[in-house]
Specification:
- The protein has 2 domains: 99 residues, Translation factors (Elongation Factor Tu (Ef-tu), domain 3); 120 residues, Rossmann fold, CATH 3.40.50.80.
- A 7-stranded antiparallel beta sheet has the order 4-3-7-1-2-6-5. A 7-stranded mixed beta sheet has the order 11-10-9-8-12-13-16, with helices on both faces. A two-stranded antiparallel ribbon has the order 14-15.
- The protein is built from 7 helices and 16 strands.
- β8, α3 and β9 form a beta-alpha-beta unit.
- It has 277 residues and is an alpha/beta fold.
- The model has no long low-confidence stretch (mean pLDDT 95).
- The structure holds flavin-adenine dinucleotide and FE2/S2 (inorganic) cluster.
- The site of FE2/S2 (inorganic) cluster has 12 residues, from loops.
Length: 277
């Protein structure tokens, strides 16, 4: 295992949208090593409740203006329970316990023209760094920047406009952003996968979000013959392959078997996921 454990000071913390916050952590070694699609486990020190760490995707690395080197990581999170509610109270100078980089990250895209990223709920968070990696505006994991595709379209669906977080970041990173909302308060009224179906097929799809959205995306990708990778947000206890709390069924030659999302994912080929057991 090549992950590292750190006590990382908080250098920024602010609200981005309804119940949605960004926390920036000073962690130079982690920031140098982490790639888009990977995640970290985060725990609040000196507390026994919550005892267990929680997984969070890399939103992006923070680049020091003087050195041009990554010195921190940004995490964007939605407040849903105990840990995320406590995280919303973090202020500059607090510290968190963090370990990573974890998981496999996004694979190389198929095709050089157009990649489609599809996000639902808080599933947009892994895609800012991914857009920058795909368009070659930033290098990750110690690698120099390299342009992988000409264009990236982000399809991002939210419950209602107030929850849309990071839209300006995605546009500034160079993605064409297509929005949808369940109640029609922003973008296309309805499901983000329906909006995707109205557009030309990208050469590769990547998705992150609630399971019904991922299932619909996998189905559409299969019907349109588009390679598709999905980042799963399965609850995790250890993040490093020990506890087996994060398993998901994956197809095998003779049926299906469980894989640990933390070490075998969180990014899986959609065609390999076993939706019905
Ligand atoms: C690889 C990975 C990356 C993630 N990246 C992010 C991210 O960038 N931003 C972000 O906000 N969240 C992300 N998550 C989800 C995040 O880990 C959970 O929201 C967090 O653990 C909730 O902790 P809590 O103590 O606040 O809530 P808890 O008190 O643990 O749970 C509150 C409620 O939410 C439900 N819940 C908890 N975790 C999940 C989950 N993963 N999926 C569905 N329901 C859940 C519980 O069943 C409960 O009903 C990621 C998860 C994974 C596995
Ligand atoms: S979270 Fe413990 S094995 Fe995956």
């Amino acid at each position: 295992m090549t992950f590292q454990q750190h006590y990382a000071p908080v250098t920024a913390s602010f609200k981005m949208a309804a119940s949605t916050y960004l926390v920036r952590l000073h962690a130079p070694a982690l920031a140098e090593a982490i790639r888009p699609g990977q995640f970290v486990m985060l725990r609040l020190p000196n507390r026994t409740d919550p005892l267990l760490a929680r997984p969070f995707a890399l939103y992006d690395t923070f680049i020091d203006a003087k050195t041009g080197r990554p010195t921190g990581i940004d995490i964007v999170y939605l407040v849903v329970g105990k840990m995320t509610a406590l995280m919303a109270e973090l202020t500059v100078g607090d510290a968190v316990e963090i370990w990573g980089p974890l998981g496999n990250g996004f694979p190389e895209p198929v095709g050089r023209e157009l990649v489609g990223l599809v996000a639902g709920g808080i599933g947009q968070t892994p895609f800012l760094a991914h857009i920058r990696e795909l368009l070659g505006t930033r290098g990750y994991g110690g690698q120099p920047p390299r342009r992988r595709v000409q264009r990236v379209s982000l399809y991002y669906g939210v419950r209602t406009a107030a929850y849309a977080a990071g839209v300006d970041d995605f546009k500034a990173a160079g993605a064409d952003v297509h929005l949808a909302s369940n109640d029609g308060t922003i973008g296309h009224p309805g499901f983000i996968t329906d909006l995707l179906a109205q557009h030309d097929a990208p050469q590769h799809l990547f998705g992150c979000g609630p399971e019904p959205m991922l299932h619909a995306l996998a189905k559409q990708a299969g019907q349109r013959g588009i390679p598709c990778h999905l980042s799963l947000e399965t609850p995790m206890a250890c993040g490093v392959g020990i506890c087996f709390s994060c398993v998901t069924p994956v197809k095998t030659d003779d049926g299906w078997d469980y894989k640990r999302v933390c070490v075998d994912g969180p990014v899986f080929d959609a065609a390999c996921l076993q939706w019905e057991k």
